[in-house]
C-alpha cells in the first residue's frame, strides 16, 4: 500500500530530474555563440592568434563571471585549447605554474590547514573575540580596520589574505555562523576586501602599486614618494573605500549578533610544543615577507619553503592526509588559468591594440583636464578587465608621455590615473588576492562578485569624483 502511495511522487521526481537534464542551458549557449561571433569578427581586423585569444578571453571571463561551470573547467579548457592551437609558447600558456602568486596560494592553503590542525586558530579566535565585541555591525567594522592595518605591515596582498582568512573563518565558526550564513560571508568578505582594496593607496602594499612605481622610475626616472603617494590616494581610495566597503557588506549580508554561548566555550590553555613549532615557522616566514626589500626573495618562494617545513611528517604540523584533503586543487588550477590567460593576452598584443584604439577614438581635449582624467581612468579600467590589475601598469606606463602630450596633463597625473583604475575591481578573476580568499575561506564566487560589482559602481559614481576634487585641492591639475 505504501509503495503505491509513493510511486506517483517518485515518478514526478524522476520526471522533473529528466526535464532538468534535457532543459536547454540558454546562458551557456549564448556564451558559446558570443565567443564564436567575437572570434569571427576579430579575425576580420586582427591576426588569427589575436582573434583566437579574443575569443578565449571572452569565454573564460564569461564562465568565471557567471559560475555556469566549476572555476577550474575554463582553466583546463584554456590550457588544452591554447596548447593545441599553439596560441603562445608553452612557458607563456603555463606561466601560472611558474608564478610566485600560484605558490603563495598553495602555501596559504598549507598554512591554513596547519593552523587548524594545531589549534592555533582557536587561540587567535579567543584574542579577536576580546576585541570584536558582541555586535555584528561592530564585528564587521573592526575586522575591516584590522585587515586594513595589516596592509601597512605586510607588503603582499596574497600574504595578508593567507594570514587573516583562516583566523576569521575559525572565528565565524565559534560565533555560531554556519557555512552558508550571511554572518560568516560578511566576516570573511570584510577581512578580504578590508585588507585588499585600501591597500592600493599604500605604495608597497600591492603588486600593481609596486609595478607602477618600478616602471615609472625605470622609464621616466620618476621615483614615487611613500608619503606623497599616501596623501594622494589614501583619504579617498583608502579610507573612503574602506567605509564604503563596510556599508556594502552590511547591506548585502546582514545577520544577527554572534552567538555568545558558543563564544564562551573557548578556554585558556598552555601552548603545546606543536603550536610553538608552527608559530616559529610562521613568524620566520612573516619576517622574511616583511624584509623582502632587503633580500629580494619573492614572497611565493618564501611561502613554499615554509609550506615544505609544515608538510614534513615528523614535525606533526599537518595531518597525514592534508596534502590530499586540505589542498583545493581546483582553485589552484583556477589561479594558474587566470595568470596564463593574462600572459597569453600580453603575448598576443591585444592589450596594446585596445589602448591604441581607445586613444584614437576617445575625444580628449587639452582644455578639459577633468574630462581627460576621467577618460584616462576609463581606458585603464578597460585594460584591467581585458588583462588583470597588474596588466594596467604594464601596458599603460610606457604610453604615459604620449598620453600626457595628447591630454595636456602632467606625466605624473597620467600615471596616477592608473591607480584609480586598478583599485576599482569589477570581477574577482582580476585579483589574485580575492581568488586566494575564495579558496581559503570557502567563499562563493557569487558573494565576492556581488561586493566587487557594488563597490565598482559606487566607486565610479561617488569616490572617483571625490578623488578628482581631492586632487584639485592638492594641485594635481
TrEMBL record:
Membrane-topology annotation of the record: Multi-pass membrane protein
Entry GO MF terms: phosphate transmembrane transporter activity
Cross-referenced Pfam families: Na_sulph_symp
One GO CC term on file: plasma membrane
Localization in the cell: Membrane
Main location: membrane
Positions of transmembrane segments: 26-46, 53-73, 93-115, 127-152, 158-175, 187-205, 230-253, 274-291, 297-317, 329-350, 370-391, 403-427, 447-471
Nucleus is among the record's keywords: no
Keywords: Membrane, Transmembrane, Transmembrane helix
InterPro entries: SLC13A/DASS
The name this protein goes by in its record: Sodium:sulfate symporter
Species whose genome carries this gene: Marinomonas primoryensis
Amino acid at each position: 500500500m505504501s509503495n503505491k502511495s509513493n510511486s506517483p511522487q517518485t515518478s514526478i521526481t524522476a520526471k522533473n530530474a529528466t526535464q532538468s537534464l534535457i532543459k536547454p542551458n540558454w546562458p551557456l549557449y549564448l556564451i558559446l555563440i558570443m565567443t564564436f561571433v567575437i572570434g569571427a569578427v576579430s579575425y576580420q581586423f586582427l591576426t588569427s592568434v589575436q582573434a583566437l585569444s579574443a575569443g578565449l578571453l571572452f569565454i573564460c571571463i564569461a564562465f568565471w563571471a557567471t559560475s555556469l561551470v566549476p572555476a577550474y573547467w575554463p582553466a583546463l579548457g584554456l590550457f588544452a585549447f591554447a596548447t593545441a592551437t599553439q596560441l603562445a609558447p608553452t612557458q607563456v600558456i603555463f606561466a601560472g605554474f611558474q608564478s610566485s602568486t600560484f605558490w603563495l596560494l598553495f602555501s596559504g592553503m598549507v598554512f591554513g590547514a596547519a593552523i587548524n590542525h594545531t589549534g592555533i586558530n582557536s587561540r587567535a579566535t579567543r584574542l579577536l573575540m576580546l576585541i570584536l565585541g558582541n555586535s555584528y555591525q561592530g564585528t564587521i567594522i573592526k575586522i575591516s580596520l584590522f585587515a586594513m592595518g595589516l596592509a601597512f605591515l605586510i607588503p603582499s596582498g596574497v600574504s595578508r589574505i593567507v594570514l587573516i582568512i583562516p583566523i576569521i573563518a575559525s572565528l565565524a565558526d565559534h560565533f555560531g555562523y554556519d557555512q552558508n550564513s550571511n554572518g560568516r560571508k560578511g566576516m570573511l568578505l570584510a577581512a578580504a576586501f578590508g585588507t585588499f582594496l585600501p591597500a592600493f593607496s599604500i605604495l608597497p602594499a600591492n603588486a600593481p602599486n609596486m609595478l607602477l612605481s618600478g616602471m615609472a622610475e625605470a622609464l621616466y626616472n620618476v621615483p614615487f614618494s611613500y608619503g606623497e603617494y599616501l596623501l594622494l590616494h589614501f583619504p579617498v581610495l583608502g579610507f573612503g573605500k574602506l567605509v564604503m566597503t563596510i556599508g556594502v557588506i552590511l547591506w548585502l549580508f546582514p545577520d544577527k549578533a554572534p552567538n555568545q554561548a558558543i563564544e564562551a566555550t573557548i578556554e585558556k590553555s598552555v601552548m603545546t610544543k606543536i603550536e610553538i613549532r608552527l608559530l616559529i615557522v610562521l613568524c620566520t616566514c612573516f619576517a622574511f615577507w616583511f624584509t623582502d626589500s632587503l633580500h629580494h626573495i619573492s614572497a611565493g618562494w618564501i611561502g613554499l619553503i615554509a609550506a615544505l617545513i609544515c608538510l614534513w611528517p615528523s614535525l606533526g604540523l599537518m595531518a597525514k592526509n592534508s596534502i590530499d584533503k586540505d589542498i583545493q586543487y581546483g582553485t589552484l588550477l583556477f589561479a594558474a588559468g587566470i595568470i596564463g590567460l593574462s600572459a597569453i593576452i600580453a603575448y598576443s598584443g591585444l592589450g596594446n591594440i585596445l589602448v591604441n584604439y581607445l586613444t584614437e577614438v576617445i575625444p580628449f581635449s587639452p582644455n578639459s583636464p577633468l574630462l581627460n582624467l576621467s577618460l584616462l581612468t576609463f581606458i585603464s579600467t578597460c585594460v584591467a578587465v581585458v588583462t588583470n590589475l597588474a596588466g594596467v601598469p604594464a601596458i599603460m606606463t610606457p604610453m604615459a608621455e604620449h598620453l600626457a602630450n595628447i591630454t595636456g596633463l602632467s606625466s605624473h597625473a597620467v600615471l596616477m590615473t592608473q591607480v584609480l583604475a586598478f583599485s576599482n575591481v569589477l570581477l574577482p578573476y582580476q585579483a589574485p588576492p580575492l581568488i586566494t580568499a575564495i579558496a581559503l575561506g570557502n567563499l562563493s564566487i557569487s558573494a565576492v562578485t556581488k561586493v566587487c560589482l557594488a563597490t565598482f559602481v559606487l566607486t565610479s559614481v561617488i569616490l572617483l569624483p571625490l578623488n578628482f576634487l581631492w586632487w584639485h585641492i592638492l594641485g594635481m591639475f
